[in-house]
Design brief:
Blueprint (H helix, E strand, L loop, with lengths): L2 E5 L5 E2 L1 H13 L10 H5 L6 H8 L5 H22 L2 E2 L3 H9 L3 E5 L4 H11 L6 E2 L10 H4 L2
Parallel strand pairs: 1-4, 4-5
Antiparallel strand pairs: 2-3
Helix pairs in contact: 1-4, 3-4, 4-6
Length: about 150
């Protein structure tokens, strides 16, 4: 083995509170949704593709309305992630620095474009040899690529 691949959310850091705050603010400004999302709501859909997330969280909306709300949520989320990031799990930086001495390290994520850049700078992953994103927009889904 010469390389290790890490997923970002839920493995290296926890961004759920930042995401929840962003989505709550966005939904509060939408008169078609009468619910407050909780951390638990978002945890239940983390790792799913965006279409499935929107269907589970906003099943009463028409497809176009759901897509627009999701775009709005993600736009605010991206801004907030760029400013605040997530909470790095204990010892992640130290462990990655140690591992990078022996292995090539990769980060894989199906997150939006704005999420990966700030997350790597917040984590200070100068020791990683490569950052790789699997973008759902390109049709490369984690569960299909690595199964």
């Amino acid at each position: 083995m010469d390389s290790i691949i890490f997923d970002l959310d839920g493995t290296l850091w926890d961004s759920v509170d930042t995401v929840a705050s962003s989505w709550k603010r966005t939904i509060a400004g939408n008169n078609q949704v009468d619910r407050t999302l909780t951390r638990e709501d978002l945890e239940s859909v983390m790792g799913l593709q965006m279409d499935e997330i929107s269907q589970r969280l906003f099943p009463d909306l028409e497809t176009a309305e759901r897509q627009q709300l999701l775009e709005d949520c993600c736009r605010i989320e991206n801004d907030d992630i760029e400013k605040e990031g997530g909470v790095l799990y204990d010892h992640v930086e130290d462990v990655l620095k140690q591992l990078s001495k022996k292995y090539k390290l990769f980060i894989v994520s199906n997150c939006r474009t704005a999420t990966l850049k700030p997350s790597t700078s917040i984590i200070s992953l100068k020791s990683t040899s490569m950052i790789t994103k699997i973008r759902e927009e390109l049709g490369f889904l984690k569960e299909k690529t690595f199964s």
